[in-house]
Design brief:
The protein is an alpha+beta fold. The chain folds into 4 domains: about 140 residues, no CATH class; about 375 residues, no CATH class; about 90 residues, SH3 type barrels (Roll); about 80 residues, Alpha-Beta Plaits (2-Layer Sandwich), CATH 3.30.70.100. It is built from 22 helices and 11 strands. Helix 14 runs antiparallel to helix 16.
């Protein structure tokens, strides 16, 4: 019975399909074509390649974008592309639904071996299946373009956030405006979703950490972290106070060692404490990547902040005022006690915010809010501290208490910090938040590096002075083992201290040049620096602050290091050697000249100048040398020759072109010669090379004191000779070897000329010795009744005159 009813039903269905075939064909030619083929062949087939081309162009533009304006335009273009792709996908969805409905009417294709369909039905089904496949592919491509555009928009936002760290001349709006505070009172939906997602991951990790299988370990780690963070430094401080007076020798090394220990103990205890807390989560097997990364960044941020706090505590040394390194009065140190801790706390809290923004990919507004608030609190801290110090100093003066002797360097540091804080505040009020952030982290990093440098230099110098001190145990061992005297120990202490300070200065210079200028977070201040900056607005000028500040720092640090090294060589090291004064002066001058050349080369390199691009400078210099600079270059080269060959040196008595005096200084271009009347003659270096120069003191030359006297013809030469020799031999400056001598120079009508010669230690005392000898010889001649030759006269009698006229002298 069922088969009987089934056969008529199949025949009826087949008849219905045959009757509906023309209608379906018409629908396919009209409505179906307009609904499927027109969008596919006209709109989708042309719109999809256009959308893909727009996406590819945006990716190319993003790779070359640098300014905030460009990033903003690309973000809007990516969002518009995503919206266009969504619209196209929405437009294609009804067509796909309609085609699917028509396929449902036709039904599935019959199985092989059953009833066959007409060719028209088979063709219609194939067309509909092809349309469905094409529409499905187009919709998937459109959705892929939409997803790609949205991902590109997120990437552009991240690049824009990164660019804000380098585009310091970008006006993003004042902190007094509502847009700055919008992330706090009206957060972005995407930001809320991202932070909510991160919070749920932290909550899941926390729940898992206190699950029964992990609870015991989490409790132990948390307890150890709290004990170490709260009591760790105090526990370490007590045994150190007992060890220092007993194990270390008396002297300044105790205080520098204690300061270094305080810094390290504060940094390590707080760092290990937070590291234990982070390990509570990172040891779990199901902890998310975000939580693991955040825990690692939190530990690094803790070490950075703890180092700042430790340095402040160590330098202020309120627990041990008598061992304080800088000369700060106790009331001032107590006034400043809370500021290093507050500064480290601000850096830690807002460093966390900035790390979270980077981790979850927060919006630019949220990033600017975190940067601006961090810069604001740091600036306020740096402004309030000097104000309170000045107020306390005025109070101490009013009460008659003695304040510390302020040095120029301390006043300069005070002024720089205050001015920098004011600059940060002005930048925030005007709206240059990236600039405020840039200056803030520059201030933090430079202050941190210089504080560490100050502490470590004291430690190194005090360590070597204590190690090589003759009275310490180590100094006695070195002295007896190497059989050296106290002078050698002092020389070794000076030399090793200088080597240590030089190494520290080089490390500090590298840290300043590589760890500043636009780092993202306090953590990245410990790493290398990135990129070249672009700008907008003020903005209109494409400035490169990294290169400029690098060059300034290199110039200032290089000049300071060279000046300190020259002073150390001239005053500390070389005087302890066996070199003569001229050799020491030549070495110092040569070292200074070479140092200036190196500083100039390093400064040019810091500016980003490549030497292969300096051909035009060389050409200009060659032309300038050919016309007007040849004398300067000649004198410069001559100065180098004088310092290396040393035909003359500082301290020599020379005579050149009728000028005789002592060389006081050999400069790059000219040499200073001091005359006997204390005046100075500037002689170009080239003249000392090209002209004949008499060096009276070269090779420790002796001076010659010669006096020529004219006596009457009736004297006894032997008596006079003996008298002159007695006068010379009696003078303390006349050397015994070679002995003084008297020579018979001339016998003439006017008398006898005798010349007496004696040698002295230095040509510089010839004039004074000769003057003393003349006084003594005249006195001895008068006592012996011997006179010098008198002037002869002639009387001429005029013819016819009885008067005599005065004759001329003959």
């Amino acid at each position: 019975m069922q088969k009987m009813f089934r056969v008529p039903f199949l025949l009826l269905a087949l008849l219905s399909c045959l009757l509906l075939t023309p209608a379906l064909s018409q629908a396919d030619d009209s409505t179906g074509q307009s609904a499927t083929e027109q969008p596919v062949k006209v709109n989708a087939s042309t719109a999809l390649p256009a959308l893909q081309k727009r996406l590819d162009q945006l990716k190319q533009q993003v790779s070359s974008a640098k300014t905030d304006k460009k990033f903003t335009g690309l973000t809007d273009a990516a969002q518009a592309l995503a919206e266009d792709a969504d619209k196209l996908a929405a437009a294609l969805a009804p067509d796909l639904t309609q085609v699917q409905a028509q396929l449902d009417v036709l039904g599935p294709a019959p199985a092989p071996g059953t009833l066959t369909e007409t060719p028209q039905v088979i063709s219609q089904r194939n067309k509909l299946n092809n349309s469905k496949t094409l529409l499905t592919t187009q919709i998937e491509q459109t959705k892929a373009i939409s997803v790609g555009a949205r991902n590109l928009s997120s990437q552009i936002s991240g690049l824009r956030r990164d660019a804000l760290k380098t585009q310091i001349a970008l006006n993003t709006g004042s902190i007094l405006g509502g847009n700055f505070w919008a992330p706090l009172f009206n957060p972005n939906d995407d930001d809320s979703a991202r932070f909510s997602d991160f919070g749920s991951q932290v909550s899941d990790a926390w729940t898992q950490a206190w699950s029964p299988e992990w609870r015991a370990g989490s409790g132990i780690y948390l307890l150890l972290a709290l004990v170490l963070g709260i009591f760790g430094r105090r526990v370490l401080d007590k045994p150190m106070n007992w060890i220092l007076p007993r194990w270390l020798p008396q002297g300044r090394f105790r205080r520098s060692f204690l300061a270094c220990f305080t810094t390290l103990s504060t940094t390590l205890t707080l760092g290990f404490s937070v590291q234990l807390i982070g390990y509570i989560f990172t040891r779990l097997p199901d902890t998310s990547a975000w939580v693991n990364e955040f825990a690692q960044q939190l530990v690094e941020l803790t070490y950075f902040s703890a180092l700042i706090a430790g340095l402040g505590i160590a330098l202020l040394s309120n627990n041990h005022p008598s061992w304080r390194l800088p000369g700060i009065a106790d009331p001032l140190a107590k006034t400043l006690a809370s500021f290093p801790v507050l500064l480290a706390t601000f850096i830690f809290l807002f460093g966390i915010i900035e790390q979270l923004n980077n981790l979850v990919g927060a919006s630019v507004a949220a990033t600017l809010f975190g940067n601006g608030l961090a810069a604001l609190l740091v600036a306020l801290n740096c402004l309030i501290a000097p104000v309170r110090v000045n107020r306390m100093r005025r109070k101490m003066k009013a009460d008659g208490e003695q304040t510390e002797a302020r040095s120029t360097l301390a006043g300069l540091i005070h002024l720089v910090i205050s001015i920098t804080a004011v600059v940060i505040m002005l930048a925030l009020v005007i709206g240059y938040i990236p600039l405020a952030r840039f200056v803030t982290f520059e201030l933090l990093w430079i202050g941190l590096v210089l504080s560490c440098l100050y502490l470590l230099i004291h430690f190194v110098v005090d360590f070597f002075e204590s190690l090589f001190a003759p009275g310490t145990h180590s100094g006695k061992i070195i002295k007896s083992t190497l059989s050296v005297n106290d002078r050698h120990l002092s020389l070794a202490a000076t030399l090793f201290s200088a080597i240590g300070k030089t190494a520290l200065l080089l490390f500090a210079a590298v840290a300043l040049l590589n760890g500043t200028f636009g780092s993202t977070t306090p953590l990245e201040l410990l790493a290398k620096i990135v990129d070249i900056w672009g700008g907008k607005g003020l903005e209109g000028v494409n400035i490169i602050p990294a290169h400029a500040v690098n060059a300034v720092l290199c110039l200032v640090i290089g000049w300071y290091v060279l000046r300190s090294a020259r002073r150390w060589l001239d005053n500390d090291f070389l005087p302890k050697t066996m070199m003569d004064r001229g050799m020491r002066a030549s070495l110092v001058t040569l070292f200074t000249n070479v140092g200036y050349v190196l500083i100039i080369l390093l400064t040019l390199s810091s500016l980003g100048i490549e030497w292969n691009k300096l051909a035009w400078i060389v050409s200009a210099l060659s032309v300038g040398i050919g016309f007007g600079l040849q004398e300067i270059v000649k004198n410069f080269i001559s100065g180098l020759i004088l310092l290396t060959e040393r035909p003359v040196k500082v301290g020599d008595l020379i005579s050149i072109s009728g000028v005789e005096g002592d060389i006081r200084r050999i400069n790059v271009r000219a040499t200073e010669i001091q005359l006997s009347d204390k005046s100075t003659v500037i002689v170009p270096n080239s003249q000392l090379i090209s002209q004949n120069v008499r060096n009276a003191t070269m090779g420790n030359a002796q001076g010659v004191a010669t006096i020529a006297l004219t006596f009457p013809l009736d004297i006894d030469p032997e008596q006079v000779r003996s008298l002159l020799l007695d006068a010379y031999n009696a003078h303390e400056q006349i050397l015994d070897t070679p002995a003084a001598s008297v020579s018979f120079k001339e016998l003439g009508p006017t008398g006898i000329i005798l010349s007496v010669t004696g040698y002295v230690n230095s040509p510089r005392i010839v004039s004074g010795t000769r003057s003393d000898l003349l006084y003594e010889i005249l006195k001895m001649l008068r006592d012996a009744g011997i006179s010098l030759s008198q002037t002869q006269t002639m009387v001429i009698e005029r013819p016819g005159s009885g008067r005599n006229a005065q004759a001329e002298e003959s």
